Amino acid sequence: MPPVETENEVRRTVEAVWRIESPRLIAGLAGMMRDVGVAEELAQDALVAALEQWPAEGVPRNPGAWLMAVAKRRAVDLIRRNERYARKLHEIGRALPESIEVDFDAAATEQIEDDMLRLVFVACHPVLAAEARVALTLRLLGGLTTAEIARAFLVAEPTVAQRIVRAKRALADAKIPFEVPEPGERAARLSSVLEVIYLIFNEGYAATAGDDWVRPALCTDALRLGRILAGLMPGESEVHGLVALMELQASRLRARVGPEGEAVRLFDQDRAHWDPLLIRRGLAALGRVDEIGAQPGPYALQAAIAACHAQAHTPEETDWRRIAALYDALAPLAQSAVVELNRAVAVGMAEGPAVGLDLVDAIVAAGLLPAYHLLPAVRGDLLDRLGRADEARVEFTRAAALTNNARERALLLERATPA
């Protein structure tokens, strides 16, 4: 046992270990108990034990193993105490020892990896509403506290707590099995998982509300989840596509914010501040998509679009014709008016603002995206490029009124102000 550390040092260590180890810990316990709610409670009990014992005894050499050992002992005690778990007790072995010693290296076995994958699919199960899937995923797989999730999404802490409790109850009531979906339903279920991870990332990349334009911590959490999933499902093309998309978009985070926290448009960003390591990682993940050889899905196509931006040293070097072609391929897969709007931007850059404006006006005429602030923002940009400044300012003002993000509103109002 190492020398006893100060209480604050130990608490910081416990928090760091928990953030890293809690997904594996909860996954292993859920595999044992077949109930994610009970698994989280047992994991939390182990966390409390660490907070009580480590300040006095010191941090153990293998803190993850220590947490797993304590949690599994308590799981066995719970099974033995409760007659409802008699059948499970029989299944996992009636002769379980009173004292369980867990080797952390042994814990990192294929079984834990399988349990991790099961936990991913359960936390992101489509029986839950999107906001519940996000909260439960960040709690069980991201290691975030309820307070951290609430701060990240600018939601009251009791609201997040209720979402998590109701999500676990909904999973129990629906008798959702703790298992990886069968091949027949795996594609649809994987789509739900990827959606949750990308929702988390997008809230960090372009916050929908509040005073901050970006929230990098959420992007980091989403990237960590995406990388874990890629390790668990190495043959799934769209998993690597999502990771590539997030890596490439995250590479721009520092350049998206000015010295005073103001929002900076893509065309105005200092590309020297784009992160070359994340770009390399994104391109490598995109290369993995090519190696798998499957038809590119929506995330892989969006990643290819992001790669076009990442590989352009200046805005003028951007291959807008390739981006427009990629959007042509993406549109029928995504079936999304937002994708059509983005396609209009790309076509407007490749073929001229008049062509892009016609596409945007078709979206307006169809009555799509009436409350989406980027629709008037894009229309204003195209009008401005056509020299129709007065009309452009009206559109920027409309866009500013529709956004809930203070930094984005300030940028749009600045564009609405006569030069």
Concise structural overview:
The protein has 419 residues and is mainly alpha-helical.
**Mind telling me the C-alpha Rg?**
24 Å
Structural class: mainly alpha
Q: Regions with pLDDT < 50 over 5+ consecutive residues?
A: 95-110
Q: Report the sheet-strand fraction.
A: under 5%
The share of residues in helices is: 55-70%
Strand count = 2
Order of the strands making up the biggest sheet: 1-2
Cα separation of the termini: 67 Å
What would the average pLDDT be, to the nearest integer?
Answer: 89
Count of runs of 4 or more consecutive helical residues:
20
Helix-strand pattern:
HHHHHHHHHHEHHHHHHHHHEH
Shape: elongated
The biggest beta sheet, please?
Answer: 2 strands, parallel
Keywords: DNA-binding, Sigma factor, Transcription, Transcription regulation
Family: Belongs to the sigma-70 factor family. ECF subfamily.
Protein name: RNA polymerase sigma factor
GO molecular function: DNA binding; sigma factor activity
Question: Which keywords apply here?
Answer:
419 residues, mainly alpha, two-stranded parallel ribbon, transcription regulation, RNA polymerase sigma factor, DNA-binding
